[in-house]
Amino acid sequence: MISDISKIQCNKHIILFAVVGALCLSPIISSPIALVLGFTLATLGLVPTQINIAQLTKKLLAISIVGLGFGINVDQAVQASSGNIGLIVGSIFCTLLIGTLLTKAFKMDAKTGHLVSSGTAICGGSAIAAVAPAIQANSEQTSHALATVFILNSIALFVFPLVGHALGMSQYNFGLWSAIAIHDTSSVVGAASAYGDEALEIATTVKLARALWIVPVAFISAFIFKGDSKKVSVPMFIVYYCIAIAIAHFLPQFHGAYQEVFFISKRLLVVCLFLIGCGITVNTIKNAGYKPMLLGVLLWVAVASVVLAYIQFIMA
User: Fold this and answer.
1) d(Cα 146, Cα 217) in Å, to the nearest integer?
2) How far apart are the C-alpha atoms of 120 and 200, rounded to whole Å?
3) CB under 8 Å to 270, separation ≥6 — which residues?
4) pLDDT tens, 164-183?
5) pLDDT confidence of 232, banded at 50, 70, 90?
């Protein structure tokens, strides 16, 4: 009788898990909400234990990143970066450097700190998803970094337009600022679109230029965390990501299909966030401590402040 009851409960958990996961494929569920939904199921003990969540997440993340490659317009990215290459490259590597120094200062896990820094430097969850397997980060390290980045990412969606209007920023300046200082593409687009059409255009193109740095940063990260290894194996999904970008560039006649793949991939990333949330509980947050969030906040504030000052006073 007890065994039968357990089986019924397991089946209910699987059904609930599948329904919520499928719901995350729809546009009504945003990235932060998906993370919260997964966290809620995990906290309530409703995540089916017979499913290997970590393995499933790893596979879906790789597929999602490859699919996002079809949405990278190389011409637009190159054009956008040509006038702001110094700001883009400088912000990326300064963020990674400061993140490394703070990670050591806080005596926190090196891989978690590097993932938080990578997400802040390039493009939030997508960068973390690309760098995590390159440095062989485990699911706990990845989930802590993603949780940190997406919490801050959600805040940025609302805070940045308020700051922009308060400072009287131009459409161009706000678009550039949001593209450099906001982590994830979805929040960059959301904040910029709320500010104006020109801001949205600038933010989107500069964000594309930042996204191209996923590959070199992932490769460099793999080299660093391999220690003394003379050979660094590039994760295959990064290779496929580059192939996807090349296909979209050299075969533009299938643009409509690429956009569909790009849209589906973005939704799959939301599902991945739900799965990652399923691996986060109050206990895991307590075990992680305050350090990942403190690192994320300090990096974010530093990047946003310095870039804002540069745009408003030096570029003016």
Assistant:
1) 17
2) 20
3) 24, 25, 29, 30, 31, 34
4) 999 999 998 999 999 999 98
5) very low
CA 93/CA 98 separation, integer angstroms: 9
Pseudo-torsion of CA 297, 298, 300, 305, nearest 10°? 130
* The two three-digit tokens of residue 277, written as one number: 């949330």
What residue has token string 């290459």?
Answer: 85
User: Model confidence at 91, in pLDDT bands (50, 70, 90)?
Assistant: very high
pTM of the predicted model as reported, rounded to 2 decimal places? 0.71
CB under 8 A, 24+ apart: contacts of 170-174: 171/195, 171/196, 171/197, 171/198, 171/199, 171/202, 172/198, 172/199, 172/202, 173/311, 173/312, 173/315, 174/199, 174/203
Block residue for tokens 């504030």: 301
| 222 and 232 Cβ atoms separated by less than 8 Å | yes
Task: Tell me the one-letter amino acid at 125.
Answer: G
**Contact, 12 vs 243, CB < 8 A?**
no
Report the C-alpha gap between 76 and 209 in whole angstroms: 8
Which of 34, 24, 2 has the alpha carbon at shortest distance from 273? 34
At residue 168, the 3 state secondary structure works out as coil
Separation CA 287–CA 277 (nearest Å): 15
DSSP 21-84: HHHTTSTTS-HHHHHHHHHHHHHTT-S-TTS-HHHHHHHHHHHHHHHHGGG--HHHHHHHHHTT
pLDDT digits (tens, 9 = 90+) for 100-139: 999 999 999 999 999 999 999 988 877 887 888 888 888 8
C-beta of residue 273 within 8 angstroms of C-beta of residue 53: no
Residue 241 near residue 217 (C-beta atoms within 8 A):
no
Which residue is associated with the tokens 């740095």? 213
Task: Give how far Cα 54 sits from Cα of 58, 105, 280, Å.
Answer: 6, 30, 11
